[in-house]
């Protein structure tokens, strides 16, 4: 497996699996399972607009999941700890396990991997300490390692994404750049929000309670044991993931998300300058990249036509004598193509949306400049005895421009966090699904190489993992992904409505509008 490993303002919680800015305490009800391709859509998320103007339209209620939220996480703003060379950044996390009976859930039947040699992978009914709301510091990299461990523990699931930091993120963390730390905080909160609705992780990973409840000193000792197990997972899975054709993806392995050729020259020059400073001025002598390993010959994936005739390959039915390796690979190949198509389309939507937000921010800057200029003009007029009335009008016009800029700024702040960052999160979630599918494909290829008979232990393991991932993908992943995306689209519409209300209120309540409606101004005419 190629383990994955790239949020909310201070105090963000995760009661609502979709909510980002406001906490909604609603009872989760059953939602029928249905695949992504079905045309019927759930109702969009309910928003609570600011009371700036009264309108008749009310956004429809929020979509519901059939899985309750099992834990509550609050991710606070990043804090700096002590470090020998540089400060260490921690994210305080408050964890509260919600009252409930874990016996309502059965222990997940995760297949025993023959290549793990009987190693205890830490799946069993866990024990949380009695609820004591305490704030515990965790590093972003530690959360990435925890997510990677979960992906190894549960190959039958699609674990929510938490991409590793890039080198530029590391640089930004070092200089405590606020926007980078805030983005990391948002990403952590979204990851934990998804973890909180997975009973397998909350109740049956023996590592989860220790990760979220141990005090920092005890955690330092425990996390080393976790890393030893994580390394054991990597080593034992290396022959399997060697068959992967993925080039790291968005999530990739630990340090894949680095500065690439698509990065801007400015970013690369900053990183190079930073490296030169750290290395004592030797940045010009860049280290040669390590030679790429020679490609290993592996069994080829079948070149099935993705979604021929509008539908994917059928999932192979159980066979007592032989394992239909080609059939399994064809099905998962189609699923991978399907997810990749969605991911690429969604990823392509992000840059134009970012451009739209950037242009809006340029408009905000221009409006603020106009407001400042009108204010200065008002001050000049005010100094003249004959300019008092015109000075007042200019001052009111300046105030209108300032309020308009503020309304646009609030709208773009919401768009960035609730829409743009959510789109990026869904892109990485799709990549996490592609990664899980890729691992199953690797299992089938590897089982074929080691002797693909149905009585072979590895073939039986590959089939068991494949069947369980298929059920998870069809019954839970597609449904929840579809609901989240409908929620994102609903937010776009709702925030557009809220923005229109705020702009209308800004104009209607402005003193400048009342001034311009004075009859003596309306009666003014100019001779041609």
What can you see in these coordinates?
The termini are far apart. This protein is mainly alpha-helical and 528 residues long. The chain is built from twelve helices and four strands, in the order E-E-E-E-H-H-H-H-H-H-H-H-H-H-H-H. Helices cover 52% and strands 4% of the residues. It folds into two domains: 1-28 and 65-280, Phox-like domain (PX Domain, 2-Layer Sandwich); 325-528, Substrate Binding Domain Of Dnak, Chain:A, Domain 2. It is elongated, with a radius of gyration of 28 Å. Strands 1, 2, 3 and 4 form a four-stranded antiparallel beta sheet that branches. The longest helix is centred in the C-terminal third of the chain and has 62 residues, at 388-449. The protein has helices spanning 140-153, 167-174, 178-195, 199-204, 208-213, 216-241, 265-278, 325-382, 388-449, 457-508, 511-516, 519-522; strands at 71-75, 79-81, 88-97, 135-138.
Helices, strands, pairings?
Elements: E1 71-75, E2 79-81, E3 88-97, E4 135-138, H1 140-153, H2 167-174, H3 178-195, H4 199-204, H5 208-213, H6 216-241, H7 265-278, H8 325-382, H9 388-449, H10 457-508, H11 511-516, H12 519-522
Antiparallel strand pairs: 1-3, 2-3, 3-4
Helix pairs in contact: 1-6, 8-9, 9-10
């Amino acid at each position: 497996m190629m383990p994955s490993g790239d949020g909310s303002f201070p105090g963000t919680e995760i009661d609502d699996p979709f909510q980002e800015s406001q906490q909604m305490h609603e009872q989760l009800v059953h939602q029928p399972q249905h695949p992504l391709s079905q045309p019927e859509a759930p109702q969009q998320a309910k928003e609570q607009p600011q009371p700036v103007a009264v309108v008749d339209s009310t956004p429809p209620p929020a979509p519901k999941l059939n899985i309750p939220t099992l834990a509550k996480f609050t991710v606070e703003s990043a804090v700096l700890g002590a470090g020998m060379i540089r400060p260490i950044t921690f994210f305080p996390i408050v964890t509260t396990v919600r009252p409930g009976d874990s016996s309502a859930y059965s222990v997940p039947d995760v297949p025993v991997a023959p290549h793990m040699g009987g190693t205890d992978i830490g799946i069993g009914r866990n024990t949380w300490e009695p609820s004591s709301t305490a704030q515990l510091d965790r590093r972003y990299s530690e959360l990435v390692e925890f997510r990677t461990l979960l992906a190894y523990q549960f190959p039958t699931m699609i674990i929510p994404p938490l991409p590793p930091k890039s080198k530029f993120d590391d640089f930004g963390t070092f200089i405590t750049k606020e926007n980078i730390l805030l983005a990391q905080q948002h990403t952590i909160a979204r990851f934990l929000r998804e973890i909180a609705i997975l009973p397998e992780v909350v109740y049956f990973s023996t590592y989860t309670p220790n990760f979220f409840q141990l005090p920092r000193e005890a955690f330092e000792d425990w996390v080393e044991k976790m890393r030893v197990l994580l390394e054991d997972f990597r080593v034992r899975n290396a022959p399997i993931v060697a068959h992967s054709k993925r080039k790291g993806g968005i999530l990739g392995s630990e340090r894949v998300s680095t500065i690439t050729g698509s990065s801007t020259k400015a970013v690369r020059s900053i990183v190079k300058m930073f490296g030169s400073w750290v290395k004592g001025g030797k940045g010009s002598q860049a280290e040669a990249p390590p030679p790429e390993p020679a490609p290993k010959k592996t069994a080829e994936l079948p070149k099935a036509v993705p979604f021929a005739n509008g539908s994917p390959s059928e999932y192979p039915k159980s066979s007592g004598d032989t394992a239909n390796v080609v059939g399994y690979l064809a099905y998962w190949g189609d699923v991978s193509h399907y997810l990749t198509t969605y991911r690429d389309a969604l990823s392509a939507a992000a840059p134009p949306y970012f451009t739209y937000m950037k242009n809006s921010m340029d408009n905000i800057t221009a409006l603020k400049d106009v407001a400042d200029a009108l204010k200065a003009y008002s001050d000049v007029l005010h100094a003249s005895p004959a300019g008092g009335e015109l000075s007042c009008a200019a001052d009111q016009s300046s105030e209108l421009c300032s309020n308009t800029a503020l309304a646009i700024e609030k709208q773009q702040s919401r768009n960035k966090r609730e829409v743009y960052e959510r789109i990026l999160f869904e892109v990485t979630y799709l990549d996490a699904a592609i990664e899980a599918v890729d691992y199953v494909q690797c299992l089938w290829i590897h089982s074929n190489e080691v002797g693909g008979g149905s009585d072979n232990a590895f073939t039986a393991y590959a089939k068991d993992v494949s069947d369980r991932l298929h059920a998870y993908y069809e019954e839970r992943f597609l449904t929840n992904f579809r609901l989240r995306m409908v929620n994102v689209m609903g937010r776009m519409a709702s925030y557009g409505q809220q923005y229109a209300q705020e702009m209308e209120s800004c104009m209607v309540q402005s003193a400048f509008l009342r001034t311009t409606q004075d009859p003596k101004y309306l009666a003014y005419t100019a001779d041609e």
